[in-house]
Amino acid sequence: MSFLGDPAIGFLMMNAMAHLILGQTRTRFLAPFGYSAAANIAYAILCMLSALTIFHLQYGVTAIFSNWIILGGLCLWMLFLIIGRLLISLFRGV
User: What contacts 44, CB < 8 A, 6 or more positions away?
Assistant: First the structure.
């Protein structure tokens, strides 16, 4: 299962980051839910939840705290989800 699960987890996490950034910068980019920023953010959340679900099924919830790559990716994604708009507004004029 790890042969298929690990690449799927990595792909879904990186796809979630890309769609989150595109959604917060309001870049028109096709997501399965449409072209809008909200569609990209919704798809990013779906991708991250899917990656975490596969990780949970394969390794268990407690393994997140011992896998620094997954934990780092999740923390970075959550930070950008929370303060991404602020960062974009601060640096848009630069």
Answer: 15, 16, 17, 18, 19, 20, 23
Please give the Cα distance from 67 to 81 (Å, whole number): 21
pLDDT digits (tens, 9 = 90+) for 14-49: 999 999 999 988 888 888 888 898 999 999 999 999
Q: In the chain, what are the domain boundaries?
A: 2-91
> At a CB cut-off of 8 Å and minimum separation 6, what does 31 contact?
19, 23, 39, 40, 42, 43
How big is the chain, counted in residues? 94
Q: 53 by DSSP, 3-state: which? A: helix
